[in-house]
Amino acid sequence: MSTIRRALTAHPAAPELPRQERSEDSECLEACVETAQVRLIAADACVEEEAVAELLARRS
Fold first, then answer.
1. Are 26 and 8 in contact (CB under 8 A)?
2. Residues 1-47: pLDDT tens digits?
3. Are 43 and 21 in contact (CB under 8 A)?
4. Distance between CA 26 and CA 33 in Å, rounded?
5. SS3 letters across the chain
6. CA-based nearest residue to 22, from 4, 46, 40
7. Where are the domains of the chain?
């Protein structure tokens, strides 16, 4: 069970939400977190490429 799913289950309003809805909400949130992580990695890679290119240009 993911951290997000545990948080949704532990929330005081959780008993009022159908189990299927909690599952769908947690899957959506997990997909958003995964997307954010991938975008952060891609952004870091882009920054690093520019930094390397600049360093190589200075050596020439």
1. yes
2. 688 888 877 877 777 778 788 888 889 999 999 999 999 888 877 77
3. no
4. 10
5. CCHHHHHHHHCCCHHHCCHHHHHHHHHHHHHHHHHHHHHHHHHHHHHHHHHHHHHHHHHC
6. 4
7. 3-59
